[in-house]
Design goal:
Layout lengths: L2 H10 L4 E7 L2 E6 L4 H10 L5 E9 L7 E9 L4 E9 L5 E3 L8 H12 L2 E3 L36
Parallel strand pairs: 2-5, 6-7
Antiparallel strand pairs: 1-2, 3-4, 4-5
Length: 157
């Protein structure tokens, strides 16, 4: 029944779906980053997905596009799960924020920004969430130096 989901997404966004695959009930659609917001809205309003379970990223250095944004959605009404992936190039690591569609994406996007350096256009408060403000770099990038020394945090009295 869930391959129906992939067929619906491909029918609604024929130019934006780069690929789909299904393995043992694990449904995945890969979409162009320009369509991410529209596809997410369709998942919520058109297909009944009411929970954004997770939003994260992966770094595939040296491959290009280097990054991949990964979102997991769930429909409580239909008991459907769907993974939505979006390639993000290294030269412009940014995508449209999903906070207008999924308010719970706020902190998840901040974590991806902090750890990978992927920006989210239209995010209401895009700033570090795990590392301190003076932290240099993004620690989950594959090219982050393992022994990098960070600036000290100023002591407050």
């Amino acid at each position: 029944m869930t391959s129906y989901l992939l067929d619906e997404i491909k029918a609604k966004f024929p130019q934006d779906v780069l690929e789909t695959h299904s393995f043992r009930g694990d449904e995945t659609a890969v979409v162009r980053r320009e369509a991410l917001g529209d596809v997410a809205l369709f998942l919520r309003d058109g297909l009944g997905f009411d929970i954004l379970m997770d939003l994260t990223a992966a770094d595939y250095l040296p491959r290009e596009p280097r990054y991949e944004l990964v979102c997991h959605f769930y429909s409580t009404g239909h008991n459907y799960r769907l993974r939505l992936k979006c390639p993000v190039p290294a030269e412009t690591p940014s995508v449209k924020s999903l906070t207008s569609v999924w308010p719970g994406a706020n902190w998840l996007e901040r974590e991806v920004y902090d750890m990978f350096g992927i920006s989210f256009e239209g995010h209401p408060d895009l700033r570090r969430i795990l590392m301190y403000d003076g932290f240099e770099g993004h620690p989950l990038r594959k090219d982050y130096p393992l022994k990098k020394r960070q600036p000290r945090i100023a002591h407050r009295d």
